[in-house]
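Entry type: protein chain
Record version: 2
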Amino acid sequence: MNAVRAAAVISGVLVLMAPAQSSAPRVLVPTAGPRMVPQPSATSSVSAAHPWRKHITCTIFWIGEQPDGRNRTPNDKSSWDQKWVEQFGGYDNPDPAARVADRTGGDFRPRAFIPRLNPFYIALPYNDVLDHRTHKPEAARVIPWFRKSRPEPGKTVLKGRWLQIHHNGRNCFAQWEDCGPWTTDDWEYVFGGQPPKTRENGGAGIDLSPSVRDYLGVKSGDKVHWRFVEAGQVPYGPWKRYGQTAAADPDLAVLQREMERLRWRRDEEFMKKPLGN
């Protein structure tokens, strides 16, 4: 007898709850449009190209983090941005008291300033470049979108790549902006589906920013599922509020931010409606 499946709309993404023995949700990612209507045919091909990495231990990191205890690497710079703190606009203070975490308004960021980059960022333990002139020898072979990107020698094709992250029934989207935790050569895990090779921090395989932490309600050491998604599949949400190309007209930029806020409120109300209405 076929197992019964229940459907729910979670965080603007349709989640089909699998039978009890399934280890991860089937999540249909929207492909276009502000109403975020799932497109099963498009999603199925994307799912095959970008499978879930399941039950991955996460840790929390932040822009401007300094070495402390087991953390040996300062985060003033990223693997691809020598002025990361400056570009972001300041120190991404992880203290919950120093953060905006407004689920109603869809605003997740440091309280002290408006970030100039997307505060929804992550790190994965692989870097595709050796220096500004050279890619790693396996990069073209293991990165699915490398050849399509046709990068110049030494120019990363990983920075800014979008991920979907799932934890405890909630979905979040974030961009790949640094390398770690602990290593930068684990392509077998990032692209090959193997477990993370590091044993540090419980075998951690993904670093999450404070905004991702606050939105998902995770803490360091929790397990998450993640996968790559295409930029056109990323739905409206707080991960699109900051970091986009600024409009030349400041009044237009204000209007765009207000429209984003209203879309977020609309989608939040839509998700509260019972299924079938």
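Comment: The radius of gyration is 19 Å.
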